Amino acid sequence: EAGAPPAVRLRTMGWSRPLVVRDGPAEVRVGLTPRDGGALAFEISTGTAPGTVHSSGLAETVGAEEPARLDLAGLLATCPRERGPAQVYAEFRDRGLDYGPAMRGLRELRLGQGELVARIVEPEGGGAEDTGYVLSPSVLDAAFQASVALLADTSPATGGGRSAPALPFAFEELTVHGPCAPETWAWVRRREGRGPLDMFDIDLCDGKGTMSVSLRGLVQRTEPAGAAPGTGPETGGNTVTAAVSWVPAPLGAPDDGTGPEPVVRGYLGGRAARHTAGVADLTGFTLARLPDVEPGRVADGAGAVLDLAFRDVADVVRSKPAGPRRFVVLVDDRPPRHYHAPLTGLFRTVVQENPRVSGRVVRVAGLDAAPLERIAEILRAEAADRSADCDIRYGADGTRHASRPGELHLGDGAEVPPLKEGGVYWITGGLGGIGRHVARYFGRYPGITVVLSGRSEHGAASEAALRELRDAGVDAHHVPVDVGSRTDVDRAVRAITEAHGTIDGIVHAAGVLRDAYVFTKDASDLRAVLAPKVDGVLHLDAASRGLTLDFFVAFSSVAGVFGNAGQSDYAAANAFLDAFAHHRQALVDIGERTGRTRAVSWPLWADGGMSVDAVTLRTMRRDRGWEPLPTEDGLRLLGRVLGDAPPHVVVAHGAAATLTAAPTPPEAPATGPVDSAPADSAPSDTASTVSDEKLTERATALLRRVVGEALHRDPGTLEETVDLIEYGIDSLAILDTTAALEEFFGPLPKTIFFEHTDIAGVAEYFVAEHAEVLRTVPDAGASHRATAGQAADATVPTDAKAQADAPATADLPAGADV
């Protein structure tokens, strides 16, 4: 018609960086710039001008044309395979895409060969009629979601999909011919022959086939935004395993006195606590009594012990200590090791977050009866020891041992798990990504039954999981249970045994994450994270005591063995599991329990339902040679562990993966003024007489360059007194920036950019703490990555360089494993 409005077209649109909205509203700017021919260039950004650009493209109007008509009936005929929306959204959630009700517009999906047809209904709460939208965001996003479903269906990855979340990255052209109908149909096709790009064309139409929107060249990207070339998973690699055992660890030579002595806070447990005041007087250390752990209330007692230590550690971290701080816990060797094991996870983590803060648990045979002089002697020795060991034991003869992972050869895994005909196997946390993989793996053995449990009541997600397993031939069932509740666990055991006659094996894979650095973590998070691991394993053990089990397996994490920045509570909970496995196996050996007991400290799984950022992947490779564990490798290893294996097995994967690196000193070096920089590495203008003002200039220039690279901004536009949040810095950029700065300075507190929120504050920190390195920082115009290794080798003091060179713990962020 002559009066028909023109069509709206968007071209060359891209999403360069996510926009994250947390508790409060976010101020977003839309910048428009006229272009030739009447087009408008647009940028969507946040922060102080020029700000962080999140999206950009071109908008224009084109002459109205008669909308094309699609043969909807014919398309439906060529797409015969149906998929339920509930199952699709459950799979999205497993991949890290958790859509709320207002964004769940998919009502029907029909798949064909490289194409699908989806029926989309405007979700309640996203009504276009109330907002004036011609193309509702929830309708367009539902079409994008359909392309992700097609991507999973057509990808060659094992299991018919990819574990990393797919996010829209760009499209070539989107034309809006008219408003969408209340019920919209999307025809989605995947383009072939586009190399590494996953590209789609989408048309939206009404029930008669009249097209309202056409979208061409939508690129869905599964690699995290900002990932550099070469940061994707490597192919190949080996799966390596280790067993943790006590190895002789005599105390090293006394400190030469050149470095600062640590400020020590000690704790005494058991009957030795009666000497708290006397030992404090002898040593000059601050001492406290450790809460008792009663056999009938292990979870409460272990939680109270961890809570006390965590609060003290957090206070020290938040005080921004200028010198080393050391926590030493002394307990008698008679109480079971798992009572105090969570402290080792805490101490292994905090030293990664702040190299100045370290700690250890020391178990001493006969400590309860030891005189206070002996207690003081051990406390002084452990406070002065520079090794990174966090778990120490003194035998009755005074010999000292440390708990360390050692190489373990388990041999080939089992393609079919070693189960038994008619067996019934219970998987807690079974609706998670790894839990469902285990259920499918168990289903390779014919005639078995698997029962999946999670905290949620039976619903769409559990029904989708059961349907998927049953379609694969697995006799699968669901029993909701909160493993943190003993009553709930007892009820679940009764329900399973009444329905299936018995339980032959338990896999405990439940877990909760509340990731945050100690500097910012709320102590109330501890109990939430401990509950499924600590309370859960104790409740499962108690409830299954009367059963004849073939195995009892707890899924733990490498975080419990090596620590993990941002996961102090999670590392603590998994350290408990590891120690409890030894305890329970000892009970099996004397006939008080049944079932081979194993704790498996898993790394990140490639298809475990979680993904990590590119910085973390680089850190994993750089520090330990780790890669994500392929699903089949993990499952076959589980089958091997179910047979002849030690109670605790640690796992990693990668061509150069290692689990047995020698411990490194935990303390950061003293950073006071030094007399001179090395003569062969420092330029003539970097002598010790360089003023603080000059060092501040160097630190500021370095920070502008490094932060600018992380934020993809011109360093010259970064003002040193502007809050970095205004420039769009986020957790990924902080990780990248800190990793780059560690190339110069060695291990750094992971919370620098929480403690100091602008470049000026961070520069002040480096002038105060790392002046000797700043004296040899290259010219500000050079690329820091090209010279960082040289600068670090030339200037970092011996102790710090040992930390920088030796393999350290890989950072596995939230949800890295079970």
UniProtKB/TrEMBL annotation:
GO cellular component, one term: cytoplasm
GO molecular function: fatty acid synthase activity; phosphopantetheine binding
Domain PKS/mFAS DH: 1-229
Record's keyword terms, sorted: Phosphopantetheine, Phosphoprotein, Transferase
Domain Carrier: from-to ranges: 693-770
Region (C-terminal hotdog fold): 80-229
InterPro entries for the chain: ACP-like_sf, KR_dom, NAD(P)-bd_dom_sf, PKS_dehydratase_sf, PKS_DH_C, PKS_KR, PKS_mFAS_DH, PKS_NRPS_Biosynth_Enz
Chain positions covered by the region annotation Disordered: 661-693, 785-818
N-terminal hotdog fold, as annotated region: 1-66
Compositional bias segments (type: Low complexity): 669-690, 797-818
Gene Ontology BP terms: antibiotic biosynthetic process; DIM/DIP cell wall layer assembly; fatty acid biosynthetic process
Stated name of the protein: SDR family NAD(P)-dependent oxidoreductase
